[in-house]
Amino acid sequence: ARQYLGVAAPGRSLKVVMLRTYLALLARCGALYEQEGGGRPDNPADPYMTLLGYFNALRELGGSRRIIEEEVKGRLPTYPRRKRVGELVGPFGARELDHDPVELTSREPTHRVSESKRRLNQTFDEKDALDVAIATNMISVGLDVQRLGLMVVLGQPRMTSEYIQATSRVGRDDKRPGLVVTLLNIHK
Question: Does the predicted TM-score (pTM) go above 0.85?
């Protein structure tokens, strides 16, 4: 089961919307993970601790990778300071990205893709669990990871079937639904 959410921000670049979405999701999921007892294998927030980013083209993925490695990684530790007026404690948790994002694309060697898939299957309490994985349509078939629950899609894929195939990679556990956030450019 999956929940779908579309986000469009007129007047903002899609990269800025992506940055803010990644920050909010990663920080909020970090807070929920800690509220549920932190590093235990049966933590109900575990599927949402790894964000799977989906991109329509390698060019989009390459530019976004830099944003994740520099901007998201740099801003995420201070994100919990964000609060609404009058709030003593905000909804976001302290979190740091321990690893750079892994890539599931055709430009990665087969052994590296296999290693990334192995790491995606690990619960977040394990040593080399992944915070962020970024991918292209390579994941539309062959990525069968039960634990994934969070995906951000940058732009609408060209074909509806591609969108359905890609987004079906999250929310495969009946007890923990997936969340798919699609970032849309209102001009395309």
Answer: yes
